[in-house]
């Protein structure tokens, strides 16, 4: 028996779809789409990234795409404080306008770490886009350039976000309740 339950839906799938389209509107009005490299931070960003890419297509924008797998949580609910690269990029970053896509901005360590690496590797600029912005645990100064939704201090799952690799398949964002 699990010591947790998926509780209330915080953000439903229609709200997510509408916000993804408006984020792409913001991104393409600010950045040069012809030089854009979208970097998905796996695993959590995969659903959000897929929907962003489909919205780019609807706008006739065709960015390059690559993936980076990082880890800072392991199987827990609190960041370990260190960021490890599990799988690195393959694309050349020289002169690219990079858009980092992540599921949630929490402590800020992952995105700050990744932005620094992208600039060191020759990216012309690095911007960030997150589905969720949770400021309660921010431990480094970092703000996303584009954020879908601000959320309170809840542990959430769904739409790519997980608890111990469970619940990524949910089409919405839901709160997890823990019990003894």
From TrEMBL:
Q: Tell me which EC number(s) this protein carries.
A: 2.4.2.8
Q: Which GO terms describe its cellular component?
A: cytosol
Q: What is its main location?
A: cytoplasm
Q: Name one GO biological process term.
A: guanine salvage
From the UniProt record, list the reaction(s) this protein catalyses.
IMP + diphosphate = hypoxanthine + 5-phospho-alpha-D-ribose 1-diphosphate; GMP + diphosphate = guanine + 5-phospho-alpha-D-ribose 1-diphosphate
Pathway info: Purine metabolism; IMP biosynthesis via salvage pathway; IMP from hypoxanthine: step 1/1
Write down the Gene3D superfamilies for this protein, in alphabetical order.
Answer: 3.40.50.2020
The GO terms describing molecular function are: guanine phosphoribosyltransferase activity; hypoxanthine phosphoribosyltransferase activity; magnesium ion binding; nucleotide binding
Per UniProt, the keywords (alphabetical) are:
Cytoplasm, Glycosyltransferase, Magnesium, Metal-binding, Nucleotide-binding, Purine salvage, Transferase
Question: Does the keyword Zinc feature in the UniProt annotation?
Answer: no
The subcellular location is:
Cytoplasm
Stretches assigned to the Phosphoribosyltransferase domain: 13-163
Tell me which cofactor or cofactors this protein depends on: Mg(2+)
The record's NCBIfam families line, in alphabetical order, gives: HGPRTase (TIGR01203)
| Family membership | Belongs to the purine/pyrimidine phosphoribosyltransferase family.
This protein is called what?
Answer: Hypoxanthine phosphoribosyltransferase
Question: To which species is this protein native?
Answer: Pontiella sulfatireligans
């Amino acid at each position: 028996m699990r010591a947790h339950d998926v509780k209330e839906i915080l953000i439903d799938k229609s709200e997510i779809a509408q916000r993804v389209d408006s984020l792409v509107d913001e991104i393409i009005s600010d950045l040069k789409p012809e030089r854009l490299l979208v970097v998905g931070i796996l695993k959590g960003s995969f659903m959000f990234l897929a929907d962003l890419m489909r919205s780019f297509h609807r706008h006739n924008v065709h960015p390059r795409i690559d993936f980076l797998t990082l880890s800072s949580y392991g199987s827990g609910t609190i960041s370990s404080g260190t960021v490890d690269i599990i799988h690195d990029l393959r694309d050349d970053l020289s002169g690219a306008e990079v858009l980092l896509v992540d599921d949630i901005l929490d402590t800020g360590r992952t995105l700050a770490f990744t932005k620094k690496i992208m600039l060191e590797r020759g990216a012309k600029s690095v911007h960030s886009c997150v589905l969720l912005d949770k400021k309660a645990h921010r431990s480094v100064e970092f703000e996303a350039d584009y954020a879908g939704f601000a959320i309170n201090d809840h542990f959430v799952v769904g739409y790519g976000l997980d608890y111990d690799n469970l619940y990524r398949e949910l089409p919405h964002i839901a709160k997890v309740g823990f019990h003894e």
